[in-house]
Amino acid sequence: MNDTQLQETLNQFLNYELLRLGSFKLTPKELIAVVLIVLITRAILWTFRRFLTRQEKRRKLDSSSAYTFYQLFKYLAFVIAFGMSLEALGIQLNILLASTAALFVGIGLGLQHLFDDFISGIIILIDRTIKVGDIIQVENTVGRVISIRMRLTEVESRDHIHLLIPNSLITSNKVVNYTHQTAQTRFDIVVGVAYDSDTDLVKQILLDCAHAHSQVVKDPPPQVWLIDFADSALQFRLLFYSDEVFRIERVRSDLRYMIVERFRQRGITIPFPQRDVYIKTQS
Questions:
Q1: Cis bond before residue 220 (omega within 30° of 0)
Q2: Whole-number pLDDT of residue 103
Q3: Taking the alpha carbons of 138, 141, 144, 146 in that order, is the dihedral positive or negative?
Q4: Residue among 168, 231, 170, 227 nearest 202 (CA)
Q5: Domains of the chain with bracketed CATH
Q6: C-beta contacts of 159-168 below 8 A and 24+ residues apart
Q7: H or E element: which one contains 126?
Q8: Pair 227, 236: CB distance under 8 Å
Q9: 30: how many CB neighbours lie within 10 A of its CB?
Q10: Is 205 helix (H, G, I), strand (E, B) or coil?
């Protein structure tokens, strides 16, 4: 077989009609082009990721910025690769968009919330008010951000439960980001004692417990406030600062154990709600 025959055979193979739908036909040439586009796209993404990793190691880029740049670049590369794949298959994008405009309108109305999540994901990645590793509170849930995707943000709660939160929920609702604070976060514990208790002693015990815990910041120092005269108890609030935002409930639990033990040692009573009932009888 000479070179001319080999070339003809190769052309016949590349242009062999695998599938035909109306004016559209699929040949090995189009399939090979799509495969090459996919492989080249993956190679570019791999190279870009290696570049960002080297920048991280050289301390020219922090991990959250590298994650953001990679995600945005990946989504852009996928969009371009998808468009090039359609062109390689002989599908003209302008004709496709014009012929299916009404269908896209219907799909857009039906998938409105999905599109909101996608746009919100782009906003979160670009704005960078929330980054991977941040500790946030959405509604009543506190967790650490594990990953930010185009539609969902993955958050690990304090109970080690992974939550998938729609991005639109983050951009349209009040979100507390504890990681953005420049100083320690202040927390409190409320405890009630009997009315005949020595208030100075109660205050001292609460302060001693706070100072004794390793996760309680010494500066600013803890404070104790007498906040209310409740029905059955004097209400005190122990205010303290801590760097342990994510596991603060464990710190609070430790402090409560310490307070209960010190109160028992010093004879301080934590009362329970009670009522005196008088029964009047007629003689």
A1: yes
A2: 47
A3: negative
A4: 227
A5: 12-99 (no CATH), 129-180 (2.30.30.60), 185-266 (3.30.70.100)
A6: 165/138, 166/113, 166/117, 166/120, 167/116, 167/117, 167/118, 167/120, 167/121, 167/123, 167/124, 168/113, 168/116, 168/117, 168/119, 168/120
A7: helix 112-127
A8: yes
A9: 20
A10: helix
Query: What's the full length of the chain, in residues?
Result: 283
Instruction: Please answer whether residues 65 and 127 qualify as being in contact, where contact means their C-beta atoms are separated by less than 8 angstroms.
Output: no
Distances 61 to 51, 54, 57, 65, 122 between C-alpha atoms, Å: 11, 9, 8, 7, 20
Surface-to-core class of residue 124, CB atoms within 10 Å of its CB (0-12 exposed, 13-18 middle, 19+ buried): buried
Q: CA nearest 145: which of 92, 71, 88, 78?
A: 71
CB 191 within 8 A of CB 270: yes
Residue indicated by tokens 């029905």: 231
Beta-bridge mates of residue 54? none
Q: What's the distance, CA 271 to chain centroid?
A: 41
How far is residue 256's CA from residue 276's CA, in Å, rounded to a whole number?
A: 29
pLDDT digits (tens, 9 = 90+) for 27-64: 777 788 888 888 888 898 888 888 888 877 777 666 76
Residue 239 · residue 223 · CB < 8 Å: yes
Q: What is the gyration radius of the CA atoms in the chain, in angstroms?
A: 32
Distance CA 117, CA 73 (A): 18
Strand partners, 153: 148, 165
239 band by pLDDT with thresholds 50, 70 and 90: very high
